[in-house]
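tokens incoming
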């Protein structure tokens, strides 16, 4: 039995797609969030308080 472990993988990544394909083929998988995702989408930047926004 083998084990593949990936860390800090963003949602909707290629690795996440591979995990979904593995599940579909009957492999056991697990997704364990270890910490909040540090990636902030562009549309979310404008919702941040002014002092945290990037100067344009």
């Amino acid at each position: 039995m083998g084990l593949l472990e990936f860390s800090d993988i963003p949602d909707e990544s290629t690795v996440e797609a591979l995990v979904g394909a593995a599940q579909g083929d009957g492999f056991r998988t697990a997704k364990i969030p270890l910490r909040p995702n540090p990636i902030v989408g562009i549309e979310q930047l404008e919702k941040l308080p002014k002092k945290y926004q990037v100067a344009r």
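note: Residues 14-24 form the longest helix (11 residues).
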